[in-house]
Structures are given as structure tokens and as C-alpha cells.
Amino acid sequence: MLCHGPVRVPEDAAKGKAIMRVAMPATSAYRSFPTDIPVEIQ
Amino acid sequence: MNCTSFVPYPLVLGLAALLPRGAAAQEGGALSKSRETAKPIAFQAVDRTIGKLPKLTADDALYGLLLFGLNGEHRVWCVLDRSAAKGAEGDAGHDAADSAYDVLYIDRNADGDLTGEGERIAASKTTRSGAKKENISVTFDIGDFQDPGSQAIHKDFQITWTKASVRIAMKWRGMKKTFGVYGPERETYQNFAKSPKEAPILVPGYDRPFEFEHWMSGVFTRGKSTDFKVFVGNRGDRRGTFVCVDDKFLEPAEYVDATLIYADTSGKEQRYHVKLTERC
Fold first, then answer.
1. Is the pLDDT of residue B7 over 90?
2. In this predicted structure, what is the pLDDT of residue B28?
3. Are A20 and B219 an interchain contact pair (Cβ–Cβ within 8 Å)?
4. Residues of A with CB under 8 A from a CB of B
5. What 3-state class would DSSP assign to B116?
6. Do the chains contact at A22 and B212, CB–CB below 8 Å?
């Protein structure tokens, strides 16, 4: 499955590597290991 | 990119809608308590030895390793072989089928011995496509599979081999589907490998806490909106080995948290939080 949604990167972000940290919220019925996904800002 | 195009088969599973909130194995009583002890798997430390192999026909057999158990402690080796030696390319009568694998050995009881009863599976379906029928897909029906960790029965277990990648699918505990393999781009989807040392490690199911992998959305542009998409399931030992649940798994009110951690133009760390509420 894919969970998705819009991410608008602020204008003041520096170009280069960044991290997207993904997890189930604390209120969720499901547990997760927070996962750091390398991303790039252009 | 249409996000419905990442899977080769439908993701519909009506049973999920019939289950109450949290009814999935993730919320099962004793399992839920033991889940508290689950840890991320240290793939580098996984033992890659195989206790006993059958006599293989193919000199280019392919190996894959599936991990079961709350901490992936039960190793189930899979080996793709051929029932007859393949002809050399260029030989008269040689066609694409000569390179297809039609035998699967799977260590059902995770004892390291792939010569046990019921551990040799013949291909159940072979399909060809392409102008010269060069694209071959071979499916192995393993059927019911007793989890060597939980002892639960997973149903409709299938492994499908193509030249591009391998696919696995099963109804975990006979309920909801878990399937793979996926990665951030199609080109990363992994195949079984030519040696146990190189074999990809896959982790099916949803007994463990979820992990995530993005799909086709790892590049953002400042000041613009990007549809960020993630698989929900288990990471394997490398990119392109993700095994996920389907789009009906999470109840409608559930969502995934995503926090972009970046530096601003002054070099200061900033965080931008979004909720991924949509599904496909």
C-alpha cells in the first residue's frame, strides 16, 4: 500500500540532502519503528 | 506518476473492512505484548549459511532468504532451480523458456535443510509476454505455510519469478495480504541472487512494528508541493526488498506521520510536519 499526501517544502530550505522521518502517530492503533528516509531538496 | 501503477495485481481485500479497529494481528493480545520487545533487525548479523541443499540442476540457481518471527529469528531459505539443464543461448531450439526456473526449494520448517518432505515445489503457472515471448513469469504455489515462529498458518503463499524481480505474496494468518518486493523506484525491485552470500533478505507479514519506504517521491523542490508516498510494511536488507500491506489495511481514520528534517539557508535545522492521510 501507499500512504501519501502533499509536502510543500518551505522557500527557506537549503538545497541538498534532507531526511524524511516517517512513523505511525502515537495515537495510532499500530506501532512502528520510525524510519529515516534520505531525500533531496532542489 | 499514477500511484496505482506500482503493483502488478489488484490490492482489493474485502476482509479488512469487516474487521473492527485494531483487529489485525498488530493488535492481537499476547502478540501485542510481545511486540513491545521487537527490535529492528540487524541484517548484517543474519546467518547466511544453509545446512543442507538438494542436488541442484542449475549452475546458476538463485537464492533468497525470508525471515519470520518477531525479531526475524527464523530463517526460511528459498532456492530457484531448474528441472533440466538449460540449453546454451544460440543452440538450436533454445528459447527464453530455457532460462526460466521451474523448481523452488523452500525450507518450510526453517531447519536449514531444504531436502525435507514438501520442500520441493514445481512451478504451477508460466506466462509469456513480449514480441518474442521473451518476458517470462513463473509462479510457485506454496499454499498453506506454517510460520516457524508464531506457528500461525499463512495462506495462499506464492512466489513469482521474472527476470526483472521476484514477487512474494500471502494472506498473513489467513487474513490480510502481505506482498512485495518493492523499492523507491521500479529499477530497485530485487531478484533472488546467485549465492546465499548475495541473497536478498525479505521480511513478510505485519506482526512486527511497521517500517516505511518511499516510492518515486524522494526529490522535493523548494516552494512547491510534492505528493510524498510511502509503503507501509517491513524493510529488507537493501533497497528494493520492501514487503508491504495493502491499501485497505489501515482503517480510514489512521494516517502516517512524516517529518521533513532539513537545513534552512542559514544552516539551522528545521522540521516540517505533515500527515499522510491518503491511500492508494
1. no
2. 53
3. no
4. 1-16, 18-25, 28-33, 35, 37-42
5. coil
6. yes
Residues of chain A predicted below pLDDT 70: none
CA A10/CA A21 separation, integer angstroms: 17
Out of A14, A21, A41, the one facing B259 most closely (by C-beta) is A21
- The sign of the CA dihedral B154, B64, B182, B34 is positive
B105: left (phi over 0), alpha (psi -120 to 50) or beta: beta
Could you give the CA distance from residue B181 to residue B202 in angstroms, rounded to a whole number?
8
Whether residue B141 contacts residue B153, with contact meaning beta carbons closer than 8 Å, is answered with: no
**CA A6/CA B49 separation, integer angstroms:** 44
Taking alpha carbons only, the member of B228, B1, B236 closest to residue A18 is B228
Per-residue pLDDT tens for B83-131?
987 765 555 555 555 679 999 999 999 999 999 999 999 999 999 988 8
Of B219, B232, B235, the CB nearest to A1: B232
Give counts: helices (H), strands (E), chain A. Answer: 0, 3
Contact residues, chain B, for A27 at CB < 8 Å: none
Facing A7 at nearest CB: one of B11, B35, B274: B274
Tally the residues of chain B: 280
In a mutagenesis test of the A interface, which of B19, B188, B256 is the best target, namely the one with the most A β-carbons within 10 Å?
B256
This model of the complex carries an ipTM of: 0.97
